[in-house]
Structure formats: structure tokens, C-alpha cells
Amino acid sequence: MKALRFHNARDLRLDDVSPPQEPLADQVVLKVLQCGICGADLHEYVAGPIMLPVKPHPVNGAKIPIILGHEFSATVSSVGPAVTTTKPGDRVAILPHLMKLGDYYVRRNLGQFSATTGLVGLAWHWGGMGEFAAVPEQNVVKFPDIVSDEQGALLEPSAVAVNAIDAAGVVVGSTVLITGTGPIGALVALAARAAGASKIFVYEPNASRRARLAEFDGVAVHGGSSADLVEAIQEQTDCRVGVDASIECAGHQGALDLCVEATRRTGTIAQVGLFVDRPKIDMFKVCEKGLNLVGCWGNDITLGPRLVAMIASGRFPVERIITGRVSLKEAVSDGFETLTRKDNDHLKILIKVD
Ligand SMILES: [Zn+2]
Questions:
Q1: Whole-structure pTM value
Q2: What is the spatial distance between Cα 305 and Cα 337, in angstroms, rounded to a whole number?
Q3: Cα 71 to ligand 1 centre (Å)
Q4: Which end of the chain has less Cβ packing within 10 Å, N or C?
């Protein structure tokens, strides 16, 4: 089968590899349909290996060259004898965290924080940028006909977004600020809307991304000075207190400062964007305002059915972040290369694998 494998930075190759054999007892073999290119894949492409194991992964033994792709939909082609929740022919999406049974965090449904956790498409033998993949049963999420293959491929980044909404404590009527609208920020905006937020303020310095987000219902998009946005937020919140929650998706100093400024006393800031440089934070203000500061890292894999139900209901139109579609052959030239260009304003490029 054809598979896009990471060999080194700027060295992805469309290799011929043998497809997975008969699945192990608790595994399923998948025929991949659609696979998204994620920011993590891009980081690996430009500067990797970062998360990709150079030495065999301590739990599953995978190491580079590795088939990329952790955001994908697929059809189940065969299942191991112990598999009970899915059967050949089912359309599924994957949530990629590979949990080690018995681990302290895994037992508490916090497996994304375990040092032993691997990831399909990053620290595993198979990924969504190959025609077939084998994964444990616990990593597949069935979806109904009403959910498209493309929507299915967006389940993983959608899980990150909904996890952030939960972490930020967004409930019906909440006022929310979102900084940075790459694919995750855009999904967070859609998820905030689905969660019933009453006011959603978005800060995005890139004009064409702003234009895209302005098409989302119920989202007020800003790009000017932070001071102007803080003023606008105060004007539009009860007693000028600021937003109940901020979700920082840019990984940027200015954006973090804006969140500290714009969040009301005793509100919450959820940090989703990953910083390259270590930011400074005004801890005096964090204390004085009684802010809750929470770090977000992936999601728990039990979110799957809830996400599928949200997408199927039409209230979480995740497909709105798709801005490009390529074949597996074109994935490097028209996917990875395009996304690394500074002037690109893409949100999500999907690879049609089948
Ligand atoms: Zn990802």
C-alpha cells in the first residue's frame, strides 16, 4: 500500500509498505478515507523529529520512519476476535491516544497526561496518511450516515476544541474571548456557539482569517488594538466586568496578556496554544483578579460519542474549517508545503486517501 512516511525534517516520502496483517485480538484494521494535516504534523515536517520516536517507543516499539496522520476517518475492514463494539463496514473516526491499561492517569480517564501514552500517527506503527491502518478498538468512534467522511476526519481536532470549552467552564449564556483562529481556535469558536455561549469575541491579527471567522454566526471578530477590544468587551458585558472565560489558542504573549486583561474577576483562562518561547504573565493580576488558569492538553478519548452526536445534530458544523483538499500524491507539495508558507491563510487541508 502507499503511505506517507516521515524520514526526517522536510523528508516525507510516499513509500510502498506492506499493509497491516490480520488484526490482533483487540485491534481493528481500517481502510482510511480522509485525513487532516495538523499543526503537530507541520512542526514535525519543518523541525522534526520532535514527538516522533527516534528510538523504539517504550510501550509499542514504533520508531521513524513513521506514517503520519492522527486526524482521520476510515471504514473498518477487519476486526480481531475480542472486538465487540465495531464490525467490518462501519464508518469510524479515530481518537489517537493509545492508553496503557493500569496506568495511574488512564485509570482516571486522564490518559492524555500519561508519559506512557502513544499516539496513532505520531508514536505508532500506523497513521492516517497510509491506505490502511491498525489501531486498538478503544481508539475508534463509530459515526452514522448523516456524518460525512470529512466531518469524521475532523473529530480529533474537534475533541481538542470541546475539551478546551469544558476546561474553560463555558456554559449556556457564558461570555467568551478566543484569541487566535487557526484550525483549533476556529473550532473552539464553533464549539462555544454549540455550548450556548451568549457572546463570543474573537481576536485574530490575520485579516483573511478574520474574514473567514466573520462568516461564522454569532461571533464578533476583532483585529485592532487589544485596548480597543478590552473596551468593546467591557461595553458589552454586565457591569463592564469582562468575559467569563478566555480561551488562548495563539500561544502568543500579546494574546495571553489580552486574556488576563479581558477576563472578569474569578473567571477562567484556558491555555490551548503552545508557546515556542516562555511567556511572561502578570501573576499579581492573576491573584488580584482570582483568575483560574488551566492548561489544556489533548482530550480524554471518551469524548468521541458526544462529539459525533454534536456534529450529527448540525449544531457543530466542523466542516466549516476545511479550506483545502488534496490527494495522497499531492499531500507534500500542495498540503505540507502550502501550509508552511507564511502568507497562507488555510485553516484545514484534508488528504483524500481512498
Ligand atoms: Zn492534531
A1: 0.96
A2: 34
A3: 6
A4: C
